[in-house]
Design a protein that fits this description.
The chain has a single domain, classed as Lipocalin (Beta Barrel). 6% of the residues lie in helices and 52% in strands. The protein has one helix and eleven strands, in the order αβββββββββββ.
């Protein structure tokens, strides 16, 4: 079941880029904070790619799956994953480094792996990308193989 848990942790989630404006000919960099993530989010796309065999992919949303999370002020997050008869949910504490556009989700359960993502935030669209993923492409419960994941979320509340 370890691969299923890794899969779920990976699912939650993107890549956030800083927003820039140039109304006066200068570039103003806006700092992204945890407060920019507060609310409910739902995945519109989530694709895993086998690192050793890039032609092997799995599209969670395309396969009828669902991934959503809710972020609270202070970075507490709850994530839900559903695919056919599979359901999982967990809590994590999120930290953010807007200088490097990285987001780290540390699960409350010690048995779940810490996940690190690069992020991009564009209005109500959040993209999370991780090269540290492991995924069971057979969906058989086997240990996952090294993979990358790109998940795109839309703010729903």
């Amino acid at each position: 079941m370890r691969s299923a848990r890794s899969f779920l942790l990976l699912v939650m989630g993107g890549v956030l880029t800083t927003a820039c404006g140039s109304s006066s000919g200068t570039t103003d960099v806006q700092t992204i904070t945890i407060n920019d993530f507060v609310g409910s989010w739902s995945a519109t796309s989530e694709v895993f790619r086998n690192t050793a065999n890039p032609s092997e992919t799995f599209d969670l949303i395309g396969a009828g799956g669902d991934n959503r999370f809710t972020m609270l002020t202070g970075g507490a997050m709850r994530t839900w994953i559903d695919l056919a008869t599979f359901h999982d949910e967990w809590d994590a504490q999120v930290t953010l480094n807007s200088d490097t556009n990285t987001l780290t989700a540390t699960p409350v359960e010690a048995s779940r792996p810490v996940m690190r993502y690069t992020f991009a935030l564009d209005g109500n669209t959040l993209t999370l990308t991780s090269a540290d993923a492991h995924f069971d492409f057979t969906l058989s419960g086997a240990d996952g193989v090294p993979a990358t994941v790109v998940a795109v979320f839309t703010k729903t509340g």
